[in-house]
Amino acid sequence: MPHIALIEPRIPPNTGNIARLAAAANVPLHLIGPLGFSLDEKDVKRAGLDYWDKTDLWVHENWFQFRDAISRQRCLYFSANATQDYRSAPYTANSVLVFGNETDGLPARILEKHPEQCYRIPMPGDVRSLNLANAVSVVLYEALRQLGDPAGASVPVAGDMDAPAPSKAKKGSRPRRPRSRR
After folding, report:
1. How far apart (Å, rounded) are the C-alpha atoms in residues 91 and 113?
2. Which of 22, 30, 51, 95 has its CA 20 to 30 A from that of 16?
3. What is the DSSP string of 30-84?
4. Residue 173 domain flag
5. Which whole number is the average pLDDT over 100-119?
6. Domain assignment of residue 127, yes or no
7. Three-state DSSP class for 161?
8. Residue 149 lies in a domain
9. Which helix (H) or strand (E) holds 16?
10. What is the pLDDT of residue 177?
């Protein structure tokens, strides 16, 4: 199963949401320090709800400790500044999906040293980047889908021949419009 790694995360609710994602997908989460908060903070706990005990959490004091624990060959790096599409990444069962923090992104030294292992989520709109928790979700579920993992296998992709056809409305029925809330 792939792993998720966050380099020096800064925003407690993002990290809590990513921990919940890791628990839901049953994948390990690596937090690489220094962290911009304490794991005891209420915002982190609130966002992770009661899933922290279900999260396979690894905390590394710094980048060097992470590098000593995880082979660089396993790492796939994700950044808005990379050039390769995340869908073309060579995901393997032991890939480590590495993300930079919310303010600085992936460190430039990684982009410069490992450009062949760096990927981006294309965004045709006029937006600089996605929220970190959203980006991690997109990449993780693409990795799981490509690996045929049950957590991601049912995620259809546009143009996927095996995707279920949309259901047809009954003849004479009209789609309901959502009621406006006042």
Report:
1. 20
2. 95
3. EEESS-SS-TTSHHHHHHHGGGGGGS-EEEESSHHHHHHHS-GGGEEEE-TT--E
4. no
5. 96
6. yes
7. coil
8. yes
9. helix 12-25
10. 44
Which pair of tokens denotes residue 111? 């982009």
Q: In terms of residue numbers, what domain contains 97?
A: 3-153
| 12 in any annotated domain | yes
Name which of 122, 145, 132 is nearest 98 in CA terms. Answer: 132
- Measure the CA–CA gap between 28 and 23, rounded to whole angstroms: 8
82 pLDDT exceeds 70? Answer: yes
Cβ burial, residue 116 (10 Å; 0-12/13-18/19+): exposed
Structure tokens, 120 = 């981006």
Q: What share of the chain is helix, strand, coil (3-state, %, to 5)?
A: 40, 15, 45
Reported as a single tens digit per residue, the pLDDT across 114-134 is: 999 999 999 988 888 899 999
Angle at 4 between CA 96 and CA 43, to 5 degrees: 160
CA distances from 49 to 39, 45, 64 (A): 13, 6, 30
Q: pLDDT tens across 135-150, in order?
A: 999 999 999 999 997 6
Number of domains in the chain: 1
| Domain CATH for 12 | 3.40.1280.10
What is this structure's pTM?
0.80
